[in-house]
Amino acid sequence: MRYVRFYGSNGYCGTDYEEYVAFDNDVTIKELDEYSHDLCYENAETFEYMVTGWGESWESTEDEEEYYENALEYGGWEFVTRVEYEENMEN
Fold it and tell me: Which residues pair with 78 in a beta bridge?
């Protein structure tokens, strides 16, 4: 098994996330990058109201694209030990 910690934020207070996941040994870096990207995007999507306001739309497509590109910069992943994985799965 490969144990991975995913982390990120959209750059605003209170939007940090952390997720621990166990993968088979044959998981690829590309698959981990894609998983991380998806988590970043979902997190950014959840909190986009912090930029646009409740029920509001983006002022421009460029603003929306910039927000999501910046949010992706805050995310990432790293391999962790089984012990660290298990400790964090208990919480």
Answer: 5
**pTM summary value:** 0.86
Distance of CA 76 to the CA centre of its chain: 7
Q: Rounded to an integer, what is the distance from CA 30 to the centroid of its chain?
A: 15
Using one digit for the tens of pLDDT, what is the confidence trace for 32-91?
Answer: 999 999 999 999 988 988 888 888 888 889 989 999 988 888 899 999 999 999 999 876
Distance of CA 75 to the CA centre of its chain: 5
How far apart CA 71 and CA 42 sit, in angstroms, is: 10
SS3 letters for 15-27? CCEEEEEEECCCC
Per DSSP, helices labelled H in the chain are 29-46, 49-52, 61-73, 82-90
